[in-house]
Write a structure and sequence with these properties.
About 55% of the residues lie in helices and about 10% in strands. Helix 1 runs antiparallel to helix 5, helix 8 (about 125-135) packs across helix 9 and helix 11 (about 185-200) packs antiparallel against helix 13 (about 265-275). The protein folds into two domains: about 5-80, Orthogonal Bundle (434 Repressor (Amino-terminal Domain)); about 90-275, Endonuclease, Chain A, CATH 3.30.870. It is built from 13 helices and six strands. Strand 4 and strand 5 form a beta hairpin. It is elongated, with a radius of gyration of 21 Å. It comes from Phytohabitans rumicis. This is Transcriptional regulator. One of its GO terms (molecular function) is DNA binding.
Length: about 280
């Protein structure tokens, strides 16, 4: 089993609760009737426990503050299974890292995306999504799966409809010119959508004349997370999986994004450039 970020973070928080109370793993295992090896593996993120089992541990640690219990039990449910993404018949078999990426996006207070080659998911229109899916998966993909991707990406975008300040996107100027397939209307609608995002202050275009910034070669996303999670986590996506970066690596990506945001055209100039291409 590949340990997910969700299970590792849950295990770490539960281990901290146990350590704060001076309890040993063996004592806890006996008290709640679990195998010692299972509790140890759980704290290392290598085993996922059911909701009822995590509840039993919280009771053993005397954690009764409702806000804390609700947060940890919610994380336990998410570590066990992300039903939103895993229970749809037409959903692809998403890699653990991709599921972690989706989860991070759902809890983040701010999401900052840099698109070096393509428009990031959170600003794609349906026609653009369809074209990219057909290119990524080839002739084997069925239309039900294409529709799943369109629906899934739109669902992810909805949370930012009412809170535009929670999303910042930088795309290179070359992204605006890059054909991905589909018909001409899809390209026009995608540009129009980017123009509206620029008008809202969500998106900027990094012009071709901009000086090189170390780290700008590939697309990435930076997540600003609420407490008690790490303040900054980043991810780099590939075709069918993603890599999650924590600690200093995440801070480096955040620094690169801030430099790219500053180097990009202001919102009004970005919108004007997009309008010229339509």
């Amino acid at each position: 089993m590949v340990a997910s970020l969700r299970s590792r973070w849950l295990g770490q928080q539960m281990r901290d609760l146990r350590d704060d109370r001076g309890l040993t793993l063996r004592y806890v295992a006996v008290q709640v009737g679990f195998e010692y090896a299972d509790v140890k593996a759980f704290e290392h993120g290598e085993r996922v426990l059911h909701h009822a089992q995590v509840t039993a541990l919280l009771d053993a640690y005397g954690v009764y503050e409702q806000r804390v219990r609700d947060r940890l039990l919610s994380l336990a449910r998410d570590a066990f299974r992300l039903s939103r993404w895993e229970d749809d018949f037409y959903a692809p078999d998403l890699d653990v890292s991709m599921l972690d990426n989706l989860w991070l996006e759902s809890i983040a207070e701010r999401v900052s995306c840099y698109g070096a080659t393509l428009v990031p998911d959170l600003l794609r229109v349906s026609g653009y999504v369809e074209a990219v899916v057909h290119r990524d998966f080839g002739p084997a993909v069925v239309e039900e799966q294409v529709r799943w991707w369109v629906r899934a990406i739109r669902d992810r975008q909805e949370r930012f409809d009412g809170e535009p300040a929670g999303l910042r996107v930088v795309v290179t100027e070359s992204v605006l010119h890059r054909p991905v397939g589909g018909n001409g209307d899809a390209a026009r609608l995608q540009l129009a959508h980017l123009g509206k995002a620029a008008d809202r202050g969500q998106m900027r275009v990094l012009p071709s004349r901009a000086a090189y910034v170390s780290g700008m070669d590939a697309s990435f996303t930076v997540f600003g997370l609420p407490q008690p999670y790490p303040r900054t986590v980043a991810s780099t996506s590939h075709v069918h999986d993603a890599a999650v970066h924590e600690g200093q690596a995440a801070q480096s990506y955040a620094s690169v994004f801030d430099k790219l945001w500053a180097a990009a055209l202001p919102a009004s100039e970005s919108a004007a450039l997009i309008t010229e291409l339509m």
